[in-house]
Amino acid sequence: MIIITGASRGVGNFLLNSYLQQSEPQVIGTYCNSIPTVNTEVFEKIDVTKMDEINDFIQRKAAVLQDITLINCAGISYNAFTHKSDPDKWKSVVETNLFGTYNFIRTLLPLMREQKFGRIINFSSVVAIKPTPGVSAYAASKSALWGLSKSIAIENAIFNISINNINLGYSELGMIETVPEDFKKQIVAQIPAGILCEPKDILSTVNYLRSTRYITGSSIDLTGGLI
Ligand SMILES: NC(=O)c1ccc[n+]([C@@H]2O[C@H](COP(=O)([O-])OP(=O)(O)OC[C@H]3O[C@@H](n4cnc5c(N)ncnc54)[C@H](OP(=O)(O)O)[C@@H]3O)[C@@H](O)[C@H]2O)c1
Predict the structure, then answer these.
(1) Domain ranges of the chain
(2) Ligand 1 pocket list (CB less than 6 A)
(3) Could you report how far apart the first and last alpha carbons of the chain are, in Å?
(4) pLDDT (tens digit, 9 = 90+) per residue, 81-136?
(5) Hey, what CATH topology would domain 2-222 get?
(6) pTM, entire model
(7) Which atom of ligand 1 is nearest to the CA of 96?
């Protein structure tokens, strides 16, 4: 069973469609505000900041939750210089990106430990590595995933559970759609590989991390050389 949070758009939606096409083990995608119009039968409405919604989902799906891969894609960003930032918006980025990831992991870990299998893959970001103005909340939430993962990794390695992060650079999918064309060109000019990350590279990295228990607590830079 593959569970992909934030599968209604962008990277999560691409991964969901890829696994559906490959007739992988059962896939479930979550959405929050963007109501899916295709493959609606594989979607569940869950706000990752709400523990009760996640618990309810786990209870309803208990019978099919076997050999779980959890791919945490749900995320938001907020652009503001820190001295002008809105504290509530700043907090909501951390609540979604960090607490939301923790909430899903916390709810599934007991089951993974019982079954002695689990693969957890979180989406972190290059901006947690590369100093970038206007993204202090986002960078804080994404770098926090590294520490969280290292601790969870050693708590659970004996149970054949791995947890890793993909530090994604600038992808063709998702959040980049909100970036103006001019700025997008400037971003691409800085990437040593000379292109945005192609979806196939995201899929192959996720599959690589799914394929082994022995990589755990790691964060892989998927940035085309950008640091
Ligand atoms: N795209 C990139 O270049 C890039 C680069 C680095 C890192 N990342 C990371 O990769 C992940 C996917 O990014 P993306 O570009 O695909 O993002 P996106 O297109 O903006 O999609 C974000 C997804 O997160 C979901 N989401 C947001 N808040 C939620 C909440 N409270 N509860 C449940 N779901 C929620 C959205 O669901 P609804 O629309 O249904 O609300 C949507 O499906 C994110 O964690 C992002 O930080 C992306």
Answers:
(1) 2-222
(2) 5-6, 8-12, 30-34, 46-49, 73-76, 96, 100, 123, 125, 168, 170-171, 173-176
(3) 34
(4) 999 999 999 999 999 999 999 999 999 999 999 999 999 999 999 999 999 999 99
(5) Rossmann fold (3.40.50)
(6) 0.98
(7) 31
